[in-house]
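Bench notes, afternoon.
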Amino acid sequence: MRIIKTIGHLRKILNEFSRNGKRIGYIPTMGYFHEGHLRLVRHAKKECDICVVSIYVNPKQFSPAEDLSRYPRDIKRDSMMIEKENVDILFIPSDNIVYPNRYLTYIDVKEISGTLCGKYRPGHFKGVATVVAKLLNMVRPDVMYLGQKDAQQVVVLSRMVADLNFPVSIRVVATAREKDGLAMSSRNIYLSREDRCQAPVLFRALSDAAKRIQKGERSVSKIIAFIKKTITQDTSGKIQYVACVDANTLEPLKIFKGKALIALAVFFSRTRLIDNVIIPIKKTGKSQNY
């Protein structure tokens, strides 16, 4: 595995691969890897000739009140993990490479960035879209791999790629989960023992809600109320939001139809966790597997 830190070095190597007809798969990350990241790598290794992973903790997507300074970092650990997965290139740019002096240009994907998580994290997806656009221009991959856990991020980046005509396809990989259903996240290490025991309630609530929809429930308000009650009646979780939206447009739903996304964000102590399920609704009234 090659560890590269400059754009010039990266492009020199990747341009050679491209000239030789190699298909390049790319996974943008902020590091502190878990099984979810490794699944993205395995998909890229299976479907592409060259696998590139980047690690960059992007300051532009954190507000002053968020956890940039304490976001978990361990480059040595991460390098060892993905080297075992036979990653070809690990790209680790510094702040001054990504955002050189007097940096002025940003990408704002309107409307869909201001709902769900974006409602509570103003400027977050502006930072995400900007850094991913820059990284795509640096790596120039054929395929970018994203995890379904960050559902809104997938929609925002898909829209950006389409609107700005990036020559890259997006492959979305299912959320990786612990045995008890908790969605894997680098932030899970912040959870206390008690919070970790309670946190699986999120996926349990989503799964039970999906079963109700499969049985014919179509009222969004009833499903949201059910999810909130499931989370709050037996745990200390503080709900930031529970929302049911169209999975492609993120427009709020009043009744379940089409392809629905149920997404939520909940605090356990200081740790904010997100999760979601996607439920395609059949016109016959029953939903498909999610």
